[in-house]
Amino acid sequence: MASYPPAQCCTLGTKHRGEPTGKAIKLAGKWDGYLATPTEKEHKEVGIVYIPDVLGIWVNSQMMADRFAANGYRCLVVDVFNGDSLPLNRPPDFDMKKWMTQGSDGNNPHTKEAVDPIVEAAIRLMKEELGVKKLGAVGYCFGAKYVARHFSSGIEVGFMAHPSLLEEEELASITGPLSIAAAEVDYIFPAEKRHKSEQILAKIGLPYQINLYSGVIHGFAVRCDPRKKAERYAREQAFLQALAWFGEHLL
Predict the structure, then answer these.
(1) The Dienelactone hydrolase domain covers which part of the protein (predicted)?
(2) Does residue 143 lie in a domain region?
(3) What residues of the chain score a pLDDT lower than 70?
(4) Is residue 168, in this structure, part of any structural domain at all?
């Protein structure tokens, strides 16, 4: 694997303050989404699909989508968990593997077989209903896997932060530029996995970037504690990393 499966650290973090300004929508009439639309200076016919971590659509991901919209990108956060995302700060004894394979009720798995159709519906909505001609994608933790998997479905440029569950074959299958933001302390995407990912990306020969942020842990790009200077700085720089990457390769 290019990164390990999700663990307790994938739910830990801080809820950020703010009021989301986008709107709730439905994908294919059954899956939830959150759509943030630029009010000015829109990059016409360009959009971003946001594939979240295990916390799904919540205030942190909504406000990040709003920030992409404020920078001109129509941004759709997609509920890849079919209404079964996790709350913040699960206890250490939470059975993450069982939740991944079965869902909270035992009949709502969060495997690639269940998630792929939701991501594909998001891509279709952006391209067929919203008129997006050039599509980027961001994936955080759990969502990073599905950025890699869905270049084949219409994603042209990707960004991921602190990936989990990413297979080497999935990373090797990308067909467009990819940027990765990594944490110095990350048991899901440790140094050996980061270096292996670098080798894979170098072999592909497409534009790539891996930035390592010191003083932060897994999840920092979405769930950091903004009261801590190092975490706040790293979160902001990871967001600017994504913006710069899309500005270079998507526009």
Answers:
(1) 32-249
(2) yes
(3) 1
(4) yes
